[in-house]
Amino acid sequence: MMNILGCLDRLTSGSYFLQGKDVSTLDDDSLSELRLRRLGFIFQSFNLIPQLTVQRNIELPLYYLGWSAAQSAERATELAQSVGLQGRLNHRPTELSGGERQRVAIARSLANDPQILLADEPTGNLDTVTGEQILQLLVKLNDQGIMIIMVTHEHDVAQYARNQLHMRDGRIERIDGGC
């Protein structure tokens, strides 16, 4: 479901409207542009590029948006600080803990100022304190107008959501909060 919502996979039938646009009819280039300009992704498996530093991983979406090196560096520093990684900008993913890698993934997901943030287990690899900090950051981002769609198996993490859609075996079981 997250891959379809994030325009990574196509529907096998039906239509999918995202912000008034039927994305099920868009070509690959248009889908890429939509993802680049409107969506942010926090993948459970991080999807960081091991050859790049933390800074370059965070800057990657900005490169595709045509930002200058100076603007990108400033934005990456700001985002690294927001997730507690300001001292790790020159490290590569293999030099980071799982929690640090997840925080890099979160910072990168915010680089393009997305309107919608898709988060797959965003606190899954974090200790309790860091996980709480990340959840507070997600609440703050949501308060600023970013729609956050989060998948979690953790009941305490789900409690941060204003609306909850409970699924089992690919089927909706229950909706709480007016989704």
Topology:
Layout: H1 2-5, E1 17-18, E2 21-22, H2 28-38, E3 39-42, H3 54-65, H4 69-82, H5 98-110, E4 116-120, H6 128-143, E5 147-151, H7 155-158, E6 164-168, E7 171-176
Parallel strand pairs: 3-4, 4-5
Antiparallel strand pairs: 1-2, 6-7
Helix pairs in contact: 3-4, 3-5, 4-5
Can you describe this structure?
By secondary structure, the chain is α/β, with parallel strands linked by helices. It has a single domain, classed as P-loop containing nucleotide triphosphate hydrolases (Rossmann fold, 3-Layer(aba) Sandwich). It has helices spanning 2-5, 28-38, 54-65, 69-82, 98-110, 128-143, 155-158, and strands at 17-18, 21-22, 39-42, 116-120, 147-151, 164-168, 171-176. Strand 1 and strand 2 (21-22) form a beta hairpin. Helix 4 crosses helix 5.
Number of domains: 1
Tell me which CATH architecture applies here. 3-Layer(aba) Sandwich
- Structural class by SSE content: alpha/beta
Instruction: Write the H/E string, N to C.
Output: HEEHEHHHEHEHEE
Question: Which word captures the global form?
Answer: globular
Instruction: State which percent range the strand residues make up.
Output: 15-25%
CATH homologous superfamily label: P-loop containing nucleotide triphosphate hydrolases
Helix content: 40-55%
| Strand line-up in the sheet with most strands | 3-4-5
> Could you tell me the mean pLDDT?
92
* CATH class category label: Alpha Beta
Number of helices: 7
Number of separate strands: 7
The profile of the biggest β sheet is: 3 strands, parallel
